[in-house]
Amino acid sequence: MIQKDTLEARIKRVCDFISHNLDKPMDLTELSEVAALSRFHFHRVFLAYTGVSVTKFVQLARLKRASFQLAFESDSKIIDVALAAQFDSAEAFSRAFKRTFSQTPSQFRQTPNWPNWYEVLDFTLPTPNEDTLAVEIIEFPQTPIAYLTHCGDPQKVYTTAGQFVAWRKQTRCSPVHRCRTFGMPNGDPNTMNEDDFRLKICGSLLTQSHSVEPNPFGVKAGMIPAMRCAKATHVGSHDTLENTIYALYQQWLPQSGEQLGEHNCFFEYLNLIHEVNECDLRTDVFLPLQ
Asked: In 3D, which of 35, 272, 268, 11 has the Cα closest to residue 143?
């Protein structure tokens, strides 16, 4: 008899394979071979563990990546986004996109409905294997930043992020490919009222004056203070970032002999969601210490 954890591991392997191969055609025979399951049973097992068919999962993964490209790459052409998502035409892509997210690609690019987007993409994925958490203690240097504060619903963070991206493109103060990108929450969004949630979306500054000119986006200048931190790197979706955060608190901290500092944990985004596949995202998690 195939054990449950073995089945789960096989389906996770398929999900990982899909995430790493969004740019190539995939057929069900190939995916069933990745799962080491008979193609006669593969469909049902995949649906049982994820809640969606494998065909739907592949399309959603491609449309999810396309949605980030639409929202954050204003210069990209819809036909290019469509072809990257393995559609033969912009028309076919637009129909599938609207059927999935209730907005055309053009509408989503202009005013993305992120809460609906989250609802559409809310399906179960197999639990990832628990790898040993690699943690190092570092001295984080004082870092001048520009920041834009997101207030309220965590599901609308990408709207604020889009505004910050637009500001970075219009100014030379914090070019994305030459400067660091941070996220600084005021706490865990899972444990506070939605209206109380705040997230500073930050970029390090190149300018020596450490100032930001008044702008219509509301971006301001600030400073991340120097502090001693534990650092761990999260690999994969930002939606599972809490797994690494909780592992720092639950697994590493009790046996480390360290004491927590005065600041909330914060993140550095080593690459960006519209530039790489979601499975290739790298995010450093910093846990301030005394």
From this structure: 268
What are the pLDDT digits (tens) for 144-176?
999 999 999 999 999 999 999 999 999 888 998
Q: How far is CA 165 from each of CA 148, 185, 204, 205, 270, rounded to the nearest angstrom?
A: 10, 18, 13, 14, 15
> Nearest 5°: CA angle at 221, between 217 and 225?
140
Residues of the chain with CATH 3.20.80.10: 135-289
Instruction: Please give the angle made by the CA atoms of 10, 12 and 16, to the nearest 5 degrees.
Output: 120
More confident: 159 or 51: 159
Phi, psi of 137 (to 5 degrees): -95, 125
Cβ pair 181, 268 in contact under 8 A? yes
User: In the chain, how many H helices and how many E strands?
Assistant: 11, 8
- What percent helix, strand, coil does the chain show, rounded to 5? 45, 20, 35
Cα–Cα dist 34/46, whole Å: 12
Q: Are 13 and 37 in contact (CB under 8 A)?
A: no
Fold of 4-120: Arc Repressor Mutant, subunit A (1.10.10)
Domain at 135-289, CATH class: alpha beta
Separation of alpha carbons 191 and 189, rounded Å: 5
- pLDDT, one tens digit per residue, over 235-263 is 999 988 999 999 999 999 999 999 999 99
Strand 227-235, strand 266-269: pairing: unpaired
Backbone angles phi, psi at 199, to 5 degrees: -140, 120
Angstrom distance (rounded) from CA 182 to CA 71: 19
